[in-house]
Amino acid sequence: MKLTIFIVAAAAALLSVAMAAAPPPGQQTATGTDNLNTTTSTVEGPNITSSDAASFIFLPDGRFPPNFTFGGMLDPNLGSHDALSAGMRYAWPMIRDDCGRFVRRVKYCFVNEDNKTALRHTFKEAIKSWRQELGEPSAESGHNLQFKDVGNPYCYANWQNERNPENWQDGTDVDALAVRIERGTGSAYGTLGYQFALESAPGRHYMVLGDDHVGRAAHEIGHVLGLAHEHQRSDRDQYIEFRCNKLKGFSDAKKRAEQAAEFDVDYKLCNYQDFAIKYGFNIATQYTRGLGYLTTHDGADGFDYKSIMIYLSWESADDVRCRLNAEHCPLAKKGETGISAFVPFNERPSSRDVAFVRQFYRWVPQP
């Protein structure tokens, strides 16, 4: 469930905004539409009337910008915690499918035959869990999200790791999500949203699953679409208790930091991602408010306990008693009586998770 953040990519996004002399990402322009990064994409747009076009910002060549949502502006009151509203990551690009429809397609592949055999069923079931809540892409369901295996037949001709583009398989789209398993870890991680590249970079989108658990895979799909962890909202302390010292590795990291004569160690380990990483407490980066170097957006609807993007109470717990008593867990619901309650494992997208998809992967009127 870990979420990989690329600092370089974030810096590049900020640089592109600065060069365009535009407002900061996510800030509204004078016309009322969201500021949209104008990175070139491969999106082909439909025929749009002059009245429609007046409501949106387009790329210089007339194509859709990355987070374009036909039929209305981005809703600043969206209830999800995400990175797309802030313009730091993007929805997957809009294309025409084989039926001529305008869809946003998440292209994926498995890194090799062994990984496809191990994960194909799990990944398809995870997609199914989203589809059952969303419905098929259509005007009735209100979304145009589509998934497609584009491996030819796999991501790599000779799999080594994510950063060996010379091994990328000819005929497989270079921006496809590379899916693989990392057995025995029990964790999962991957990239957040869609990342545009000045030069096409094979393997820049990836998902790593520690087992074949469908719920974990569905959680990671949420990240792929642009959702951030619900428990990392800036206002999360109003709704949940985060006990950083209950996480695995806290005590060892604290000892290392104190031996280095650091001060305010407890606070820094639990709130500063770079400090936590420095002392080998990487798990804390999955709990700190916000996403460090990336700007995220808190929806106005408050905390979503049912979101698939929240960790269950005993995730990465250091104390086995956590399974019986939420007081010993890293995360717990704040109870009205002062007694902590467990945060359950949500294996399906919530209504707000679905609303996020319908916002950024909105159905487009067909030509």
From TrEMBL:
Its EC number is 3.4.24.-. SMART domains: ZnMc. Coiled coil: none annotated. The keyword Hydrolase applies. Binds 1 zinc ion per subunit. Residues 1-20 form the signal peptide. It comes from the Eukaryota. This is Metalloendopeptidase. It comes from Massariosphaeria phaeospora. The lineage of its organism: Eukaryota, Fungi, Dikarya, Ascomycota, Pezizomycotina.
